[in-house]
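An example makes the point: we let one protein speak, the chain in one-letter code, the fold tokenised, and here it is:
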Amino acid sequence: MIDKELLEILACPKCKSEVRLDEGAQRIICTSPSCGLRFPIRDDIPVMLIDEAEKPTAP
């Protein structure tokens, strides 16, 4: 599980927006509507690499 203090200091590496935790999917999501990248969490470590991120799916 990601510590809340860590989550507060993390930012999207692409657009610098705040991120939020999606515990069910085990990923961190950029809160910017124009970005929305989804970063995986592996072994309780967020992988904040743009190349590892998933792009948001269209509704």
Observations:
- The chain has a mean pLDDT of 92.
- Residues 4-52 form a domain with the N-terminal domain of TfIIb fold (CATH 2.20.25.10).
- The radius of gyration is 10 Å.
